[in-house]
Amino acid sequence: MDPILRLLLIITLSYLAGSIPTAVIISKLFFGFDIRERGSGNMGSTNAFRVLGVKWGIFVQVVDILKGVLAVAVISHLFTGEMPFVNRTPFEDITVLRLIAGVSAVLGHIFSAFVQFRGGKGINTATGMLIAIAPVDVGIAFACFLVVVILSGYISLGSIVAAITIPTAMCIRYNVLHVDIAGYHTMIFFCIGIALLVIFTHRANIKRLIDGKENRFAKLQLFKQKPRG
Q: What integer pLDDT is reported at residue 79 of this predicted model?
């Protein structure tokens, strides 16, 4: 198979895998409505938790994470052979293909072809991709996510902090703790790019956080401030 055609197939299949609108399918199939018409109007797991309940929220989150894992761990390996371009990164060719497949899946989730290119915010699919690429940094980011959600009750804030934490943790591990991270000088910019993409997709949440109008998951907030007076 022609290398360029093989790369296009990887990008297309990964994009389509990421485009699967899990929450929309579940809401229509089991609840009889489109989740984009309820809550925040988003098809991500946060709105699924809010509108569909904990059980289905967890299901949506797991499936959306698996979309990223599928692209990186399976689709990128379907077509092996010569690269269609010169690989000037410190990564092996297959690792570069995994990165391309993962980004394609994230873009598919954000700009889903199945729902008029209006998808979710990409945090879960990006998490799935990064689990397969940088598991240690994702673990650190997940811990930060839990701390922020427990203290504040804001899922969106936790997601933004987690996205920023991944390149930050990688930078500290490599430059301060002197951990040998393969392809660090390429990976760090890649993770920064993913973080910026996640922040961009959460721009409406950031505005609501600043205005004090963001929805809070009170049940997840273990340390609540007592009302004054």
A: 75
- Asked if 170 contacts 79 with a C-beta cutoff of 8 angstroms, the reply is no
The C-alpha atoms of residue 121 and residue 126 are separated, in whole angstroms, by: 9
CA gap 74, 198 in Å, rounded: 24
Residue with tokens 């609540």: 224
pLDDT of residue 9: 92
- The CA distances from residue 105 to 12, 16, 54, 205, in Å, are 9, 7, 25, 22
Q: Cα 190 to the chain's mean position, in Å?
A: 13
Closest CA to 136 of 71, 187, 185: 187
pTM above 0.90, yes or no: no
CB 221, CB 151: distance < 8 Å: yes
Q: Is the pLDDT of residue 20 over 90?
A: yes
Question: With contact defined as beta carbons under 8 Å apart, do 96 and 85 qualify?
Answer: no
Angle at 63 between CA 136 and CA 73, to 5 degrees: 55
